[in-house]
Design brief:
single chain; six-stranded mixed beta sheet; five-stranded mixed beta sheet; 20 strands; elongated
């Protein structure tokens, strides 16, 4: 049987909490609210509700404490108070949402459901410390009021567990408050709550340090108070003489802030001097706020020397998040720097009650969409005339509507774009997992690769060693990571298949005792219509092409080339006359004698050595059936003679030279004025040569030039090289291949 009774001490707490809540809600509750609440809570308690939490705290006491803290720290809102009182009963399943909806209204039910959704996240054993968990919590809450209640709820819990014997549980709650709820409170501008959460978090995780700083603050309080009094006294007198209405208060740095500064500066508490700041709050109509703030500034800086580098003017240009204040640092008595903040009553209330969410000022990382949305919240809180929370219930939290947050079975949380599938999730975790993925279990149900995920899903990836990525997977994913990995994996598979197919083809050629000519093989690949070698070999691997057919094609092509070479060797010199490669108007024909004077066969002067009339040359029957003319000293000559001796044809020049051949001359010299002009002039004066192209590159006073000239024969070229060598500044002239 569940013990949901109250101890005498708890009964006294209940009475006190009821009186406080009765007073706080006097202007917002409806006449029947208290009766309805009592009736609902009594029925829930009778049916097994009121189960104490893991710290032994009764849910009714916790709910009333949370409702009171909400009224004190944020706003007394009817629907939020009712939702707080009912949320724990819904969690214990002694109450359902439909009953809340019928007894109260849709808005109360909406808040309670939001609280329930967020609480359900904790059941996933998620990595709460991750930023993704915070984002998912904001997504599940759907209502900013739910987040505010969660922050207040955690504040009340932290207050309740001081000196609780379950130290590990206390530490867990404290760390969670520090990295999750305190930053959220800060973003909403709930600075007092944020400061208290941080202080208690330090207290529960490092009690010795907390106690040490607290004692030090108490020890120095009297001297600090005396110093502040000596600083404030003349300021008060000056402000009063000007007829200003104001309050002055000192603000002590929180214990957590002091500890944080000690960690950053690697100092001890005795070396932290800016423990106090003075705040002047002026009671002034809005239209005179700026002028009177600057008047106060003038009075203070007349008394104390200001530090111009420390002036922060957020009056003239308020911060983008709406924060308004004037901060100055002055040199007070005993040459100690004191920070003074000057603002109006309106500005102070906004900052203190959470309207000016200036988290950027505190150095907290911002997110554009979250910043914009929080600023919208600030505007509503600031401008609302009849209860800000009334307007907030219509403010939809769709900050992460373009993203989904998904759990692993172990509770790890991942963020993916909207529309992400099981396959996206697998690749997001690890590319190896994605490549072997055959589907997944989403919330315990089997799903296909292309199943789209929603926020809060728990996904278990199913794999198979026989699975391989396919190109059609690209239509199943939306993340660039998955797309890139799929393409990469498919390419790797194709490359491996191509390599195996190439090895197979080479073995077959070797078995047939055929030496493969790569250039001839490329011709065959191109003839078969394949754009890349990999595509060709993949066609073999997938059995689209038969290896025996390819070998037969190769042998037929090779036989055709040998037939052309044989015909060239048997043709007489009298029948074979070929045109010069370069023809110019009025020139006659040059004659190349190929083999036994074969004619009617195409030839081409090779570009690797650019032979000209007079060079020792030979012919080579290429894979295309064209005879290429090479110089005997061509860089490729040795390789050609060793690999294809049967395709070499003796060739020589015959007849008279009358046409020009293109040849390249390399010139190196000093980068002197006029040197290029002098070289060009020499070529222009040569009757049997012409300049066709010139390219010059100069570096560190040395130029390298390449001259393409048209010459009739080697004799003309050699004479031209000798003449260029005589030009002043030229260091080296050579014929280039």
């Amino acid at each position: 049987m569940v013990d949901n009774s109250f101890s005498p001490k708890e009964k006294e707490m209940l009475k006190s909490l009821f009186r406080d809540l009765y007073r706080y809600t006097s202007n917002i509750r409806l006449s029947d609210d208290i009766r309805q609440l009592r009736s609902t809570i009594s029925r829930a308690m009778t049916s097994g509700g009121g189960v104490r939490d893991r710290f032994g705290i009764h849910p009714i006491l916790h709910g009333m404490s949370t409702a009171k803290a909400l009224c004190e720290g944020v706003s007394a809102d009817r629907n939020m108070v009712i939702a707080i009182m009912l949320a724990d009963l819904l969690k214990s399943e002694s109450l359902d949402v439909e009953e809340i909806r019928s007894t109260w209204d849709e808005d109360v039910a909406k808040i309670v459901e939001g609280l329930q959704n967020v609480q359900d996240l904790y059941k996933r054993h998620a990595a709460v410390a991750s930023e993704n968990f915070r984002n998912l919590m904001l997504t599940f809450a759907e209502d900013i009021r739910v987040i505010i209640i969660m922050i207040i709820d955690r504040l009340v819990l932290m207050r309740s567990i001081n000196h609780h014997p379950a130290e590990d549980m206390v530490r867990e709650v404290a760390l969670e408050a520090s990295y999750l709820y305190a930053p959220l409170a800060h973003r909403l501008g709930l600075y007092k709550i944020k400061g208290e959460l941080e202080d208690m978090s330090l207290k529960y995780t490092n009690r010795d340090m907390f106690t040490r700083i607290a004692r030090k603050l108490n020890e120095t309080k009297r001297s600090r108070d005396a110093y502040i009094d000596s600083f404030i006294t003349p300021v008060k007198a000056a402000l009063e003489r000007e007829g200003l209405k104001f309050d002055i208060k000192g603000r002590t740095k929180s214990i957590y802030s002091i500890w944080n500064k000690m960690m950053k500066q690697h100092n001890d508490v005795e070396q932290i001097y800016d423990l106090f700041a003075i705040r002047i709050i002026l009671d002034v109509p809005r239209e005179r706020e700026r002028s009177e703030c600057w008047l106060a500034y003038s009075l203070i800086t007349d008394m104390y020397q200001p530090n111009p580098a420390r002036l922060k003017d957020w009056l003239s240009v308020p911060k983008s998040n709406g924060y308004e204040s004037l901060h100055i640092t002055v040199l007070g008595p005993d040459d100690k720097w004191v920070e003074v903040q000057i603002r109006s009553r309106r500005m102070d209330e906004i900052a203190e009650t959470g309207v000016a969410a200036h988290w950027k000022y505190k150095g907290i990382k911002s997110e554009n969409n979250l910043d914009t949305w929080m600023n919208h919240v600030r505007d509503i809180l600031e401008d609302a005339q009849s209860g800000p929370m009334e307007l907030m219930k219509n403010l939809k939290m769709d900050l992460y509507s373009k993203e989904v947050f998904v759990f692993t079975p172990k509770g790890d949380l991942y963020k993916l774009p909207l529309g992400a599938t099981v396959l996206d999730f697998a690749f997001n975790i690890h590319s190896k997992l994605g490549c072997s993925c055959i589907g997944g279990k989403v919330n315990g149900k089997s799903r296909k690769l292309n199943h789209k995920l929603t926020s809060g899903d728990t996904v278990e990836i199913l794999t198979s060693n026989n699975q391989v990525p396919k190109l059609d997977w690209l239509s199943m994913v939306v993340t660039s990571k998955a797309r890139n990995k799929i393409r990469q994996a498919v390419n790797e598979i194709n490359n491996r298949s191509a390599e195996l197919a190439k090895e197979l083809l080479q073995r077959r050629f070797k078995n047939r005792k055929i030496d493969v000519d790569e250039s001839l093989m490329m011709k065959i690949i191109k003839k078969l219509g394949y754009k890349t070698v990999t595509d060709f070999y993949n066609a073999i691997a997938s059995e689209v092409l038969d290896v025996n057919d390819i070998i037969a094609e190769y042998e037929a092509f090779e036989a055709k080339i040998e037939a052309v070479a044989s015909a060239a060797e048997k043709t007489s010199a009298e029948e074979f006359t070929m045109q010069s490669v370069v023809k110019e108007e009025g020139s006659g024909d040059d004659v190349l004698v190929i083999g036994d004077n074969v004619k009617g066969i195409n030839y081409r002067l090779s570009k690797c050595c650019n032979p000209i009339y007079g060079d020792d040359v030979f012919g080579f029957v290429s894979a295309e059936g064209v005879i290429k003319i090479h110089r005997v000293n061509c860089p490729n000559a040795r390789n050609i003679r060793e690999r294809y001796p049967y395709r070499i044809i003796t060739t020589r020049w015959s007849g008279k030279s009358g046409n020009q051949f293109a040849s390249t001359i390399r010139v190196v010299g000093n980068d002197d004025i006029g040197i290029v002009t002098n070289i060009s002039s020499i070529i222009a004066k040569e009757p049997k040569a012409s300049l066709r192209n010139i390219s010059i590159d100069s570096h560190d006073g040395i130029f390298h030039g390449y001259l393409v000239v048209g010459v009739e024969n080697t004799e003309v070229l050699e004479n031209l090289i000798k003449k260029i060598t005589t030009v002043k500044g030229v260091k080296d002239v050579q014929r280039s291949n």
